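Chapter review: from sequence to fold.
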Amino acid sequence: MAFNKNSGADSGSKKAKTIIIAIAAIVVVLGGILIYLAVKANEDNKIAALKYNFNKFYPDTFNSVEELDADSDYDYDGIKNSEEIVSKTKVISGDTDADSLSDKDESTYKTDPNLADTDGDGIKDGIEVLAGLDPSDLITDGVTKDSERRFSRVINFGEGSVSVSGKGSIYGATVDKLLLNAVTSNAGAITAPYEFYCEGGFEKATLTFNYDPDDLMISGVTTNNLRIYQFDPYLKKYNPVGASVNEENNTVSCELHSNGVFVLGAENVIHQAALAFESGIMNIHLLIDNSGSMYPKSIQSTSKESDVNFKRLSFARNLVTGVDKNVKFAVSAFTYEFKHICDFDADKSHLIPAINSIRNLGPGFDGTCVEIALIQGLSYFDDSTKGQRNVIVLLTDGISTDNGGYSLNDIVTLAKAKNVTIITIGLGDEVDTELLTRIAESTGGDYYPISEANILEGLYSTMIASMKDDIVDDDLDGKPDSYTLYDTGFDPDFNGFSFQNFKSLESQTLDYGMVALARDWFRNLVPQSAKNPETGTDFTFEGSTINTAEPLRKVILQIMQEPWLKPENYLNFLSTGDTLKVSSDDAKASQDKGWSKITIPYDEPGTGWTSAEILVPNHNMSTIRTKYSENDYAMINAILYYDSYRGTGMNFSLNSDDDFSKVKSILATGTPLVTKIFWDGDDGKCYNRYVLMTTLRRDLENPNIFRIKVYDVNTKFVNTIEIRRTIKVNSNGEDDFTYTAHWDNKQVSLSCYPS
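The token string follows.
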């Protein structure tokens, strides 16, 4: 047999070639995979970037475009909007440069409306005008520089005055009365707390408080015990700063060396009361009017029917259940006679039945005796409660028909002796407002005028907030920074919706409808059904299981669980053409369940897109009922009903002191305030968004800075609007202020809708 010695070599060569080819193929495949993965990774990164950009953009689509009316004057400064645009002053601020001169007055004084200090001497233009200086001249009198001249002035306030001297900046100094519970509830405080503040500094200041000898006698205080104290909000202590008593003029004076909060107080008593406040232990005696005027006419023919549904008892129950375990309650009812029901007790299982029992007492038809009720109620505070914080909450709907021989002085004297603060609530328009106010103010309490019984149920949260320590850590950095002036008690996590703002075929944004509904739900004023005769928009909760007595947060809608609420879940970020489209699968699936497509402007650089498709629930389709639930259909229609009143009704812009007082008076009743935030965008258009104003706070150190907490249905976070107050030059020589608002890093205007 012949043997070919080359056959083995050929075989080896073939194997080698096969291996090389295989390796090459693998390399090609791997290369292809790597290229694919690289392309895919690049595509994924691109999609991720596009999603991120869209998610940043999308919340802004819930801002409504508002046409700018050229002939209107949005900031009430006397200049038309069109003229402000030409002069480059702000359409939404009457004092663009915040120098205390209105934009219109700037022309009178020949100053720059966009420059706070026209002549550059370190004194704002408006302050110079108040000081009698020329804001456009460095040397008004031709002799001494304005910045080197010295002035003196007297600032009078409710219970005294401050005499201050220094540079021209002293004309920007202010004295504010503080509704500061930590101080006003102190039995040792003879006056309310007042804050002196001079931003530019001062050289000398003398604070003088007036006192009434009769009031001192009532409180058991002698002039030897009088001291002026500076309240330290961080340590919550009272530091004496002086006491020069003039018994002939009934005044107490001292020199001031810094800005701060000051109060005239009684030595020792003020410190003991401060310790009681800090202890956190509180005793509250509820005195509840149960006279015939509260009952139906079927029971009492002459009744005002002030509270036929016993909302006063709901208020009392809410108050008891809303406080912490360190609080004890006593419960009494009164008509022409006093009926004590329950001694001080912290056990809610005892207190709630005691409150409910008032319903079975039956009305008293022979009058209302406020003074007798207070004297009797005060008698239940004894030695065991003297070193603690004590409060009476009195609720009445009538004028006292028999004072039992007791005077206001008798009530105040006894309250001071027992360290009791009295809070009064007047229901309806036939109450002795003057008496209830004086009783409250004389004992460091508050008076709450309530127009109707339905509002009572929500008042408890405001009252709890007022009883708590109103010095708070607003930015949650571990340090107190604000005073709480008014807190309605509206908690977005409890009283807000379980879902955020959404769009519909009828409206590009439903924020107004949602916050207005949330407000009325919180106040227990949402009707079972209603119709807007102007638009025909209506809703009914009949046939659904929605219970308006439960917190709004408990209303969970099936439709709001769908992924189509978030465009990132359904948009095809590989869409070609000029529209970012909904994926075909989501388009069909959503349509089957009653959703529709709308198109919104969306210009994403580099993509060619100028618009985007958005999925929204179509509430008119019967599929909302069949595919989801009657609850979903009813609730969406309720939101649309409330939204149909968008921009209607009485409203006012927050620009002046009068406007700010309106805001405070509304929040004081425990009513959140529907507010439109308005601003001019970078694109030359004007925008607005509706939110719910819930809490008003003030900076701890600067009385010109306020913070408003708002419920914004467009975000899951609590938003804050900052308000800055600027003293205003006016013709009558009285102190007045302008207010400018800032939100989301931009200056805005606020329009408030009380109802």
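Two observations follow directly from the output. The mean pLDDT is 87. The chain has four domains: 150-276, 280-469, 495-643, 651-753.
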